[in-house]
Structures are given as C-alpha cells and as structure tokens.
User: What shape does this take?
Amino acid sequence: MEIVSYIFMTIGGIFFLLGGLGVLRMPDTFNRIQAGTKATTLGAFSTLIGVMFSNPSWIAKLIIIIVFVAITNPIGSSVIAKATYNSKNIPDNLVQDDLKERGEDNDSI
Amino acid sequence: MNIIVFSLMGLGILFAVIRMIVGPKLSDRVVSLDTVNMIVIGVIAVLATVLKNAMYLDVALIYAVLAFLETIVFARYLEGKKDGNS
Assistant: This one.
C-alpha cells in the first residue's frame, strides 16, 4: 500500500514539474495556459489519489478536494484565456481567430 | 522517499516563480500564479501524509477555494486593462 502511494505521489510530482517547466518554456500566453493548467490538474489528481492510498480513512475529504479541483481549474483557465483575449494580448502568428469572425462584443467574461 | 516528491514539486514551483518574475505581460504572471497555487495544494496534501494529521486536508481545501477566487479576481482586473502590459 505504501509503495502504491509513493508511486502515485511521484507521478503527481513529475506532472507538477512538467507543468512548471511548460509555464517557463512555452512561447506565448495561450500555450502557457495550456501547459500550466492541464498538467497541474492531472498532478493534483495523482497526488491526492496517492494520499488516499496512504491513509484510506481520509477518503471523504480527499474526494471533496478532487471534485473541487476538477470543477474550478478548467473554469479558472477559461476565464484567464478570455481575459487575455479581451486585453488585446494576442500573438501575431494565430492561425484561426473564431471570436473575431463572430464579431461579437466580448466585454463580459 | 518523500524527499523525491518534495523536490519535484519544489522544482515546479521554482520554474513557475521564475516565469512570474520574468513574464513580459500581466497575463503570464496570472497563469504562473495559478500554477503555483495548484502545486501548493499538492504540497499540503503530501505534508498531511508525512505529519499524519488530517487537519492539513482542511487547510488544502480552504487554500483551493481561495486560489480559485484569486484567479477570478485577477482575471477581472486583467480584463479592465486594455493594453495588457506589465
């Protein structure tokens, strides 16, 4: 049980490391949002599952944290991406810009 | 064994904090702040295992709530600035 717990925690730590490295190395803001949010979501899942294998009596609190992270982290990344688009911080080499083609006034989040 | 997990998470926090210091635009800093908050949630959860105290999971849950509100508030602030500099 301890071995499985450490394996899950190490996988989570590797994903956290890759998330930080992606935030450091990616070229523009939207790529950084992808790297920094998706990798850390999976890292948090894996780490909390490792804690769950280590102490099975803490399963209720850990499930609450996992569900909260699964709901709020994609919402946060979407809100940051919309705010970045609306603050006119758009890279020059975009291939497609659907929000511009729709021609709506994107003032609200 | 725990030192490996803490080292990986600490390196992730270090890379994200470097991006927070260097980052040319304000939105890069908000993204790296979100990343640091998620890694700190994982660090608190592993710390609960090391210290064998379930109270740290409550700390992690409250930290997750505050990190979400922080991200939303900084994104609203970012939307008010139309140039997106600094």
Remarks:
- Residues 59-86 of chain A form the longest helix (28 residues).
